[in-house]
Amino acid sequence: MIIYNETSSSFLNHIYENKIGYVLKKNVLAKMNKVVSGSELRSWENSLPQMAKVLRDADLKEDTHVLLEYKLPSSEKRIDFLVAGQDEQGTKNAIIIELKQWQKAKVAEGDGIVRTFLGGRDRETVHPAYQASSYKRYLQNFNESLYSDSTSIQLHSCAYLHNYIMASMGEPLLDKRYSSYLQESPVYFQFSDRDLAKNIRKLVSKGNGMEIAETIENGKIRPSKKLVETVGSLIEGNEEFVLLDEQKVAYEKVVSKYNQFKAQTDQKHVIIIKGGPGTGKSVIGLNLMSYMLKSKAYVEYITPNQAFREVLRKKLIGSSGHVEVRDLFKGSASYVHAPENYFDVLICDEAHRLKEQGHMKKKIEGENQVTQIIRSSRISVFFIDDFQKISKKDIGSVKEVEKEAARFGADIHTVELESQYRCSGSGNYISWLDSILNYDQEAFKLEGDFDFKLVSSPQQLKEEIVDKHGGRLLAGYAWDWTKNVVNGKLADDVVIEEHNFALPWNDPNRIDWAIHPECANQIGCIHTVQGLEMDYVGVIIGKDLGFDEDTQKLIVRRDEFKDKGAKPAKPKKGAVDPLVDLVRNTYRTLMTRGMKGCYVYCCDKGLEKYIQERSK
């Protein structure tokens, strides 16, 4: 979607007549049904006149075209400025220009990362050259008009920091660590505007931009052949993604419904794949994505949990360098404004974590994230485990998906996964865990190859799991998360005084916490670790979960549960407290992250004794 598509002469007139803000506001309301914020309006009014000066100096033909606020397909990201036309040889060109009002920046750790003043404080963000390059690659991978040989449109990118005076010595934004991105997308500063004008003139001086602009705006949205082949090569032949038994059954169910739809009908289909932890839901999902891409379906892979999404991306991409694959993975809040049936297939992993609405997203009346996914796609696939809902905000459930599917008249299909591929393939361990958490009243004897151990101190837990096995420590949300930084270090929020033990929660700025070597001595919470798997995990069960030796029942202590955003309201007298299920689900999820083993330390000695007796 493009908010503004006009000739360069019309753009200059809108600037000179001081109408550009009004025109953009009107177009955003008409095309997106969205009211523009004051800060966004000010941003346009500060940056676009600077680009008008550049275009004036470039002395372009009147029919060169300017495109503003191009919303990237299936994304909340928008390209600030795009100019289209032909060069002296008649080559069709389009230039992405990312506009920034920055005044200074610093080098930061991480590939393509810098530090600058944003949103009222210093923060890390991507380098402008990286941002412009990534937008270019995104369009080249998803807009057919920009990867098809028939249109022959050449796409270019750069960034213009019109308020930024380049340092005479050692300019941070030109540091050699950013050289690959700068080579692809040069950065222009306050006093290099004439260089920018010169390069624009070189690429689009002959005008004739209307056809180019319309081709880009109306280009079909589907992944490029290159991207399809990349995903296929990453999955095929990788033993980690081989489908076994009922995984194959679930996979073929989705494939058959897609082929039916493609052959003869527009009927919506919703496939619910139910499976507990370690049943291989993500393996099925990734294989489905590969198949759909090869079938030329417009498909995306949804994970509500950002940390899980990032690890899944890295797991698939590995060291191959195919970073464009990242754009196939989306958060669950990406479909608020997606048109009906815009996608052929949407695959939603960890669907039990879907919400009423996304963070900072305006809710559409009568819709939640389940609604939006089903509305936006012809075929929706939901991988779901009702026993992994761990917050009052989680609304994803089999019942909710069925309700919303019926609302759209979709055919509903359900597949159940039972075989265990995590926890050393030990279905016995899962059954035993369910029995001690009172999901199942039948007593199970702990048997099999899975390495389970109760330890007597958190120090022992760290020694055994982190130091010996290279695993990660996890804990229930029984400690406040202050997110404070003391002397450059994360605050030690998880404190167990009787053992003189203190470690920080995981770094909120490292969404790859579970696999980053510098984060080994941090403790993962449920929101970070859900969906992930490691060889060994050590779980600290806080005082939010205990055991009453008099009643011989598990107890949940409301005052020890510190996740305010997840905590449901206190129930009326005599009613069942919904917090009980959330706490049980949390520890069930944490204790099933290990592939080979799980060691546990209990803050409640009654609970320790209970688990010890049941594990003999």
Short description:
The chain has 19 helices and 26 strands. The protein is α/β, with parallel strands linked by helices. It comes from Neobacillus bataviensis LMG 21833.
Question: How would you describe this protein?
Answer:
The structure is a single chain. By secondary structure, the protein is of the alpha/beta class. The chain folds into three domains: about 1-215, no CATH class; about 225-415, 3-Layer(aba) Sandwich (Rossmann fold); about 425-615, no CATH class. Helix content is about 35%, strand content about 20%. It is built from 19 helices and 26 strands. The chain has a six-stranded mixed β-sheet with strand order 1-2-3-4-8-9, with helices on both faces. Strands 12-11-13-14-10-15 form a six-stranded parallel β-sheet, sandwiched between helices. It has a five-stranded parallel β-sheet with strand order 16-26-23-17-22. Strand 3 and strand 4 form a beta hairpin. Helix 3 (about 40-60) packs across helix 7 (about 195-205). The longest helix is centred in the N-terminal third of the chain and has 21 residues, at about 40-60. The protein is globular, with a radius of gyration of 27 Å. The termini are far apart. The mean pLDDT is about 85. This is AAA+ ATPase domain-containing protein. InterPro entries: AAA+_ATPase, P-loop_NTPase, SLFN_3-like_DNA/RNA_helicase. Pfam families: SLFN-g3_helicase.
